[in-house]
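On clarity, I found the account of how folds are encoded harder to follow than it need be. What matters is that the chain and its backbone geometry are given together, residue for residue. The format is easy to grasp once an entry is in front of the reader. For illustration, here is how one protein appears when written out as sequence plus structure tokens.
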Amino acid sequence: MNFDLHNVELVGQQTPDPLRFAFSRKKSPHAGGMMHSVKGEDIQISLEEAHALAPANTLAPRCLYIHIPFCRVRCTYCNFFQYASSSSLIEGYVAALREEIRWKASQTWTQAAPFQAVYIGGGTPTDLSAKQIHTIVSDIRSQFPLTPDCEITLEGRVNRFGLDKFEAALDAGVNRFSFGVQSFNSHVRRSAKRLDDREDVLKTIQTLVSYNAAPIVLDLLYGLPYQTLDVWQQDLQDYMESGAHGVDLYQLIEMQGLPMAKMVEQGKLPHPADTQMKATMFDMGVKFMARHHQKRLSVNHWASDNRERSIYNSLAKTTAEIMPLGAGAGGNVNGCQMMQTRDMDTYKSAISERRYPVTMLTMAPSNRAVAAEVKSGFDAGVLAQSKLDRVAGIGTFEALIPLFNAWERNGLVYLERGDEAASDTGIEVVSVAGGGYVSLTLAGQFWAVTLAQNLIEVLQSNTPTGNSNVIKNEATHVAA
């Protein structure tokens, strides 16, 4: 297998502080690879064929993603904003969405097997009325086959999320709530165009938690303007004080063209944290969660009790199929990876004509499981030889040992060789076929997406012995 071990973009810098300086910056929130694009009318033909067939494996996990493309206010860092919330626009959209739900629920692919997770994301789904939330969730539950323990998540913000909406969602069957708090600090929140101050946010979350009816999960973002280390420490403390059942710690990814970048350029906001500061904040977050005995579910997600499972977020990084519903939704069905149009009029017109409202379609290669295994493994913090070799071919892990060694020298991973596993006595060396692991260090966890992307690109450009298929890999992108 060919790769350049002198390329610092691949192996990282050799530095006493790999957490902060292994790479220059994180370039993307997700790892991914190349796929074959489908154009023109072939999009409709391919999708009609995909939905008319049952999945090849009816036991494989799959999910539903429903996109609600409305927000009352656009946050300065957000790339998902589509439409400002208005009652008339939302009403027309919900009608079209319900029509899409009825149409797609009747298809062969849909009814062939149950769904393990449903995620209603955006946008801000909690901008819907209590009745609209109840109606959409009820439609999903009555028309789609769901597993008995199906996780049904409603995403949103606490602003104007009254108990009427909460109780309507619970009554309809929502059993998990995810709120994008980002920061509790009132000044940080206002600068990011987040509504409500710290006291109101804490009070609302504590009230929802007190119902003891479903897991309440928070997103916290680190690296925002005005978010000092002291502010970040208080954000972590506030998570504990809120009583929430789980939390994601996400790194701010700066993108050109977003309101934040423009405001910084105009001098209206200070620069957000640089990579080294964000690495420090990640370090603080990991140590804080360990000190408070939070259960770690992935490199950036923790739970305070066993009710928080994060099923959708975990499955989205695997080969699980995801049916998209709504304008701007993304998913994959029977090897078709798709993004639905973000344009409201185009979406409504397509649904009324029973045409798939898809603007981008790519076909997954036969070895798409390879990229999924890399992404899910690095998200969990460990890549297993047995799992990688099962999808990429025997010998793949061994062929990558020089790269793993370079990462280990640079403080990013721990490499465990199957033939180096010692017995409990410390004397006998036990050979374990396929028993190798690459475990991420703290620095590796911070750079997990970068490492996963680099490994996917290496596998794309090489053909390990015994497996001529490991050339191209899938990029899974689902709006959530």
Q: What stands out?
A: Confidence is low (pLDDT under 50) at residues 421-432, 464-480. The chain is about 40% helix and 20% strand.
